[in-house]
């Protein structure tokens, strides 16, 4: 396996969906290749950074607007059913 | 199936019943759980945060109006996310009419390589297909630089530049932490298709981070 082939299989490697024989070739390459080891570490870091994008709280304005939406909806339902 | 971020079925049923009964606390609970996720999902389809928030507001009204008809066959979370997705797609299509088509189409995606071919040694080299210059290790980068506002803004831009099909998968998987089974379920795509899209998306974002960090 070359480095160029390995980079195309990284997601399958991380998802653990490589066929057993391919996994053996992948691991064998990785055990002797610092470049590919660094590449996979870069990929893991990228995934970790992506996970930080979600850390965002709901704005107060959005919350207020949503509660207003909810109360209007509830009043409409009550009117319709009542 | 790994459904880490989902509510348990009984918990979910209680929420649905409470919401039908007009319980404001149940609604607030749902907003706390899902609002931020919904905005992220909407952002995969529409061009700005402001529009994403509008879409999510509309989606909540859709949730309220539909909750009477919600059946327990699908998960509440999946059902809500599909509502957001459908609205965001529709809104995104409207917005797309005003931006150049080149920004939407992803030409040559089938021939796409994960890493630029010129980063590898050629056929005439002693080691064809091996790194010309090995990728740099990133473990020495301080956390506060790696997770700085500037880096996150660059990653956000890299996401925006992805084709929509890749952006929706990577948003669900890596930004929101859904399992691959959940992503396949919400988007109604196969495991293989999901993995191919995820791979392309991650490869592009990694390259963008590399360009930014090593500039």
Key terms:
heterodimer; A: elongated; B: 215 residues; mainly alpha; elongated; disordered N terminus
Write up what this structure looks like:
- The complex is a heterodimer of chains A (82) and B (215).
- Chain A has 82 residues and is mainly alpha-helical.
- Chain A is 77% helix and 0% strand.
- Chain A contains five helices and no strands.
- The relative contact order of chain A is 0.09.
- The mean pLDDT of chain A is 93.
- Chain B has nine helices and no strands.
- In chain B, helix 1 packs across helix 2, helix 6 crosses helix 9 and helix 7 packs across helix 9.
- Chain B is elongated.
- In chain B, 33% of the residues are buried.
- The N terminus of chain B is likely disordered.
- Chain B is mainly α and 215 residues long.
- Chain B is 60% helix and 0% strand.
- At the A-B interface, helix 1, helix 2, helix 4 and helix 5 of A face helix 2, helix 3, helix 6, helix 7 and helix 9 of B.
Number of helices of chain A: 5
Strand content of chain B: under 5%
The two chains with the largest interface, and their residue counts, are: A-B, 45 and 56 residues
End-to-end span of chain A in angstroms?
72 Å
Largest sheet of chain A: none
Structural category of chain A: mainly alpha
Largest sheet of chain B: none
Distance from first to last alpha carbon of chain B: 41 Å
Taken in chain order, the helices and strands of chain A follow as: HHHHH
Number of helices of chain B: 9
């Amino acid at each position: 396996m070359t480095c160029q082939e390995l980079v195309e299989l990284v997601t399958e490697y991380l998802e653990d969906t490589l066929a057993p024989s391919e996994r053996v070739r992948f691991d064998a390459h990785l055990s002797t290749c610092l470049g590919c080891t660094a590449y996979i570490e870069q990929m893991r870091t990228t995934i970790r950074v992506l996970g930080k994008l979600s850390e965002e709280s709901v704005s107060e304005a959005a919350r207020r607007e949503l509660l207003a939406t909810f109360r209007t909806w509830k009043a409409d339902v009550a009117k319709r059913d009542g | 199936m790994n459904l880490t971020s989902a509510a348990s079925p009984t918990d979910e049923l209680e929420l649905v019943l409470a919401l039908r009964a007009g319980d404001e606390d149940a609604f607030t609970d749902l907003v706390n759980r899902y609002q931020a996720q919904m905005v992220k999902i909407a952002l995969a389809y529409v061009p700005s945060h402001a529009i994403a928030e509008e879409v999510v507001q509309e989606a909540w009204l859709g949730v309220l109006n539909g909750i009477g008809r919600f059946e327990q066959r699908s998960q509440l979370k999946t059902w809500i996310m599909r509502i957001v997705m459908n609205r965001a797609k529709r809104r995104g299509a409207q917005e797309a009419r005003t931006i150049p088509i080149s920004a939407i189409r992803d030409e040559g995606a089938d021939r796409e390589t994960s890493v630029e071919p010129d980063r590898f040694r050629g056929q005439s080299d002693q080691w064809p297909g091996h790194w010309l210059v090995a990728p740099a290790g990133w473990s020495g980068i301080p956390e506060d630089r790696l997770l700085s506002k500037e880096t996150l803004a660059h990653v956000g831009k890299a996401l925006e530049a992805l084709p929509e099909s890749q952006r929706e998968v990577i948003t669900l998987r890596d930004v929101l932490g859904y399992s691959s089974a959940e992503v396949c379920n919400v988007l109604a795509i196969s495991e293989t298709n999901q993995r191919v899209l995820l791979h392309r998306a991650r490869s592009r974002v990694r390259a963008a981070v590399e360009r930014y960090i090593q500039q």
